[in-house]
Design a protein that fits this description.
The protein is of the alpha+beta class. The chain has 3 helices and 4 strands; from the N terminus they run H-E-E-H-E-E-H. The chain has one domain. The protein has a 4-stranded antiparallel β-sheet with strand order 1-2-3-4, with helices on one face.
């Protein structure tokens, strides 16, 4: 008798199972990579918006101590900008020399927080120092 050559049904089922497992792992890693790319896109957009806002701060309107809020892209990104006088942590705040320096230009610390996503979602924060404009009273 002549022997038939070919694959048995069991071998074909095992081959399909291995193929299905390999494709599942491959598609899982691709979807994970797609999520990472999407997250990087969101962080990049938030960074570009923040850079634009920080660049325009103090240019379009005089810089003042206080807090402002807003959003970009129809509320997709929410921002909060706080401007407060800068306090150097290395200098003792009780020294009388610090009071004499207050009559000249002062530094302001800008703290910008950008949030996106559901609830608190993700957030990024930037800090920058700027000179506050001198007031006419400070020059006297």
């Amino acid at each position: 008798m002549k022997r038939q050559r070919g694959y048995s049904l069991l071998e074909v089922i095992v081959a399909f199972a291995l193929l299905a497992l390999a494709l599942t792992l491959l598609l899982g890693s691709l979807s994970g990579a797609a999520r990472q790319v999407h997250g990087a896109d969101l962080r990049t957009r938030a960074t570009l918006h923040a850079q634009s806002l920080l660049a325009a701060t103090g240019i379009e309107a005089p810089l003042q101590v206080g807090r402002t809020q807003g959003d970009w892209e129809d509320g997709r990104y929410r921002w909060d900008l706080q401007v407060e006088p800068y306090v150097d942590p290395r200098v003792d705040t009780l020294q009388p020399a610090a009071a004499t320096l207050a009559t000249g230009p002062t530094l302001a610390q800008l703290t910008l927080q950008v949030r996106w996503g559901e609830g608190n979602g993700e957030r990024l924060q930037w800090r920058s120092l700027r000179l506050l404009p001198t007031t006419p009273d400070a020059a006297r």
